[in-house]
Amino acid sequence: MLPATAASLAVLAVLLAWPVPALVARARWPQRDPLVALVCWQAIGLAGGLSMIGALLVHGLAPWGDALLPAGWALLSGRPAADAVRGDHWVALTLAGVLASELVGVLLLSWLRTTRTRRRHRAMLELVVQPSAGIPDTRLLEHPAPVAFCIPGARPLLVLSSGIVAELDDDQLAAVVAHERAHLKEHHHLLLLPFVAWQAALPVLPAAERAHAAVRELVEMRADDVALTSLDGPGARRTLARAIVAAADGAGGAGVPDGALAVGGAGVRARVLRLLEPPDPLPPAARWSALVAAGLLLLLPTALLLLLAG
Amino acid sequence: MASLGELERAVMERLWAADGPVAATTLREELGDRGVALTTVHTVLTRLEQKGFVVHDDERPRRFTARASREEHAAELMHEVLGSSADRQAVLARFVGGVDADEARLLRELLAAVDNTAG
Fold it and tell me: In chain A, which stretches have pLDDT less than 50?
């Protein structure tokens, strides 16, 4: 039972560390339903961590007994192992500890750091910028680059630069605001957090970077979709596409510091194409099977570990 | 009664408008129409100092100056938003990243093509 569990967790961890993210990142269907794809990515990220740490723990604790919790307790309280403890058991235990503390630590650190930065930005904006009269909870920042962004949090803020207000017409500006509000309403910053942690904890894992990029792109597409539901008229798709092109184009102009360019050029194109020539939505059957697959993926390592816990 | 946030903004406006360092008593006189006490002005100044917007000198009485101009603060924030530092992560939802010239041309052509077919 025990070696089989460790082995199946290890296989799952390897699959989730490379082939599965590579496949999903390359697939075309996520564009057709960003929300379902985001759910799948969360499952991949969480199940990946669980199975990787779980496999190492199950293997490393084997000499102390079959049940994880009592074995872990025996190890911590310094009781001798029932079976001989080899080098690979210690290596597995050390790796499990390092990986777990690194993932949790990075998650906590990046959460703390972003909260602090956001607080600073919000304080600055509230002080320097008068609330915009036209659009509620929006600040207009005097700057030539056409930029829009939002600061999530308990008191979210939406920021438009004077550059973007000058560049876009009223309909386009409304589309931009609807897009940013969608980010805030659906708490997209939280969906990104696990992937920020993965990439910071395991920068050598190519899938981590790929997953992070894919999730970032999907979050933008999802915000585009939500924005469209609140915009009227048949031309809404084209209005949003125009706003994206104008903002991306103008961002290369004056007043933009070095290093800001060429961020996600391909992502911008994919968004525009998707708005101009909308792909068919996923059929309900495909939607549901993707969601069930995501659920099972998360359930599998959880069930394996729970079975062994006591 | 004005909120602290409003008072902070009013104090910053005065400091930005002033030619040099300003004493708290002067600030209170300038904010006279709001009827604030000197202690309130000091509270506001302390908060602004903690947030890093105001510095004071060693004169007696202390005089206060804005650390940076309004434009400098705006430029600093934009630099963080547009730059590729780790802090960019914090400001998740920038509407679009910039693209290079070739990509921009391609995007404009895409739009033009759709406009043409739509008549």
Answer: 253-264
